[in-house]
Amino acid sequence: MTHLWVRAEQRANEERVGLTPDGAKALLDAGIRVTVEHSSVRAIPIDGYVAAGCETATENSWPNAPENAIIFGLKELPEDGTPLPHKHILFGHAYKGQPSGQILLQRFKAGGGTLYDLEYLVDETGRRVAAFGYWAGFAGAAVSLKCWAAQQAGGICGPVGVYTGKDALLDDLRKTLDATNTPRPTTIVIGALGRVGSGASDLCQAMGVTTTKWDMAETASGGPFPEIMQHDIFINCIFASPGTPVFVPASAKTDPRKLGVIGDVACDPDSDFSPRKVYDQTTTST
Cis (ω within 30 of 0) for the bond into 21? Predict the structure, then answer.
């Protein structure tokens, strides 16, 4: 019997989970054994999984899961260097030349395990079956606008908290933008026809933000793309791969520009294929 083990996320501020109780029930009905770890941070309480019929396990106990269990999570594993003997489903960020990805693959090699990278699981037509979608773009655009609003006051955006739902987010963001007492910014969304880009575009529209929507047709020339520099905000919603053009060159750091915020929803800055050449690592804070 296939055994799926849903681990608790261990990345800081990560409250998401890749399987809902309803989804777990569907797997159980299909004859799959499902174990869900308790989590002190997960957005969905354990009670729903118990009601669905799942087994439960102690938080972060996946290293001791049965050898045949498939460990399922969303984001990175703890970077402790230990060999990985299990099969794992996660976003590994391992196949675009990322230094941390090479270390992760060495851990799988040392332990004899297998990585099923969510970024590369596709159906018969080649379409990805698991991807951050509409709400990733929606939330990413909201944070981008918060950053722009903070800049209008000469500051930087503080920590972003949790909202009870879409309406609460929109109400708070609208008040934040209105408080700047300035016209709404201009935004360009690249990847606008995709799931992530649709969410980003809809958030901007809800806030009354003039949005330029680009997709593959508009970037097929390969660049350069000076139009991006003439917007206040650039929201990157593409899946970078070999041949992806550069949208923001390194020269943008000193070139004349209007651009003040890059909303990097794709967020893969240390990849060889990154289309933003003005940074190569994520921002950290304590």
Answer: no
- Evaluate if residue 286 carries a pLDDT over 50: no
Question: Could you tell me which of 80, 82, 73, 84 has the C-alpha nearest to residue 35?
Answer: 73
CA distance 46 to 51: 9
State yes or no: is 93 an active-site residue: yes
pTM of the model: 0.80
183 beta partners = none
Task: Kindly report the backbone phi and psi dihedral angles of residue 92, in degrees, each rounded to the nearest multiple of 5, phi listed first.
Answer: -85, -20
276 lies in a domain?
no
Structural domain range at position 198: 134-264
Number of domains in the chain: 2
- Note if 213 is an active site residue: no
Of 3, 25, 38, 75, the active-site residue reads 75
Question: 226: domain CATH number?
Answer: 3.40.50.720
Of the candidates 76, 137, 69, the residue with the CA atom closest to the CA atom of residue 101: 76
| pLDDT top residue among 146 and 94 | 146
Instruction: Please give the single-letter amino acid code of residue 254.
Output: T
